[in-house]
C-alpha cells in the first residue's frame, strides 16, 4: 500500500459515488447528477461501442468498454487535482492490466465467433501469395498479438508520465524563481506559473482524450476480431 494505490482507490470510490448519486433515484426530468451520469453513459454507448461494433455487439461488450473508459478517465484526472498531483495510470500497473484485459477480450471474441479460422486468418491473411507468408506471418503475429497490448499500455502510461513531469517542472520552477531568487529573476516565476496553469488545462484534455482512445482501440480490436473475413 502506497500513495499511488491510495489515489487509485480514491478515484474508484469517487467514480462509484458519482454514478450511485446519479442513478439511485432516476426521474423522467433528470437531476443534474442524473443528467451527467446519463450523458457519460450515452457517450460510451453511442460514440464508442455502437459506432465501432454496431448495436448488437456494442451492447454485448458495452459493460467492458464503459468500465475501461470511466476507470481510465477518473484515474487520469487525479493528476491535476491539488493534493493528489499524480495520475493513477502514471505507474504501469493499471495500464498493463487494462491492456491485458483488452487483449484477452478481443482474442476471446475472435475465437468464439470464428473458432476454426480466427487464428489461421490472423496469421495467414487470405489472398496473400503463399510464398509471401514467410514474411507476412511474422509481421501479422507481432502486430496483432504482441504490439497491440504493448502500445495500449505505453500510450496511456507515457502520456500521463510526461504530463506529470511537465507540471512538476513548471511549478517547481515557479517556486524556485519566487522564493530562491532575487530581483528581476522573480519575473520568470510569473511566466512559469502561467505556463503551469495552461498545461494543467491541457492535461485535463489529455486525460479525457486518452480515456477515449483506450476504450476506442479496445472496441476496434474487438471489431477486427469479429470481422467476417475471419
TrEMBL record:
Source organism per entry reads Leifsonia kafniensis
Q: Which CDD domains match?
A: ATP-synt_Fo_a_6 (cd00310)
Localization per record: Cell membrane; Membrane
Out of the domains of life, which is the source? Bacteria
Listed transmembrane segments? 6-23, 61-84, 90-111, 156-178
Explain the purpose of this protein.
Key component of the proton channel; it plays a direct role in the translocation of protons across the membrane.
Return the similarity comment: Belongs to the ATPase A chain family.
Instruction: Kindly state which keywords UniProt assigns to this record, in alphabetical order.
Output: ATP synthesis, Cell membrane, CF(0), Hydrogen ion transport, Ion transport, Membrane, Transmembrane, Transmembrane helix, Transport
Q: How does it sit in the membrane?
A: Multi-pass membrane protein
User: Predominant location of this chain?
Assistant: membrane
Q: What is this protein called?
A: ATP synthase subunit a
Which Pfam families does the UniProt record give? ATP-synt_A
Amino acid at each position: 500500500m502506497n500513495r499511488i494505490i491510495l489515489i487509485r482507490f480514491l478515484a474508484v470510490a469517487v467514480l462509484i459515488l458519482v454514478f450511485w448519486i446519479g442513478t439511485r433515484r432516476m426521474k423522467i426530468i433528470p437531476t443534474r447528477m442524473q443528467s451527467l451520469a446519463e450523458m457519460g453513459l450515452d457517450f460510451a454507448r453511442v460514440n464508442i461501442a455502437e459506432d465501432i461494433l454496431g448495436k448488437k455487439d456494442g451492447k454485448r461488450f458495452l459493460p467492458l468498454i464503459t468500465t475501461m473508459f470511466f476507470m481510465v478517465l477518473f484515474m487520469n484526472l487525479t493528476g491535476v487535482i491539488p493534493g493528489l498531483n499524480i495520475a493513477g495510470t502514471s505507474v504501469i500497473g493499471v495500464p498493463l492490466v487494462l491492456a491485458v484485459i483488452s487483449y484477452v477480450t478481443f482474442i476471446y471474441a475472435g475465437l468464439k465467433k470464428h473458432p476454426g479460422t480466427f487464428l489461421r486468418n490472423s496469421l495467414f491473411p487470405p489472398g496473400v501469395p503463399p510464398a509471401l507468408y514467410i514474411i507476412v506471418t511474422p509481421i501479422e503475429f507481432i502486430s496483432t498479438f504482441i504490439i497491440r497490448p504493448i502500445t495500449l499500455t505505453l500510450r496511456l502510461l507515457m502520456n500521463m508520465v510526461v504530463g506529470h513531469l511537465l507540471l512538476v517542472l513548471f511549478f517547481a520552477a515557479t517556486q524556485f524563481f519566487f522564493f530562491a531568487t532575487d530581483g528581476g529573476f522573480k519575473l520568470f516565476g510569473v511566466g512559469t506559473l502561467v505556463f503551469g496553469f495552461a498545461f494543467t488545462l491541457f492535461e485535463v484534455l489529455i486525460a479525457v482524450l486518452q480515456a477515449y482512445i483506450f476504450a476506442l482501440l479496445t472496441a476496434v480490436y474487438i471489431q477486427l476480431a469479429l470481422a467476417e473475413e475471419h
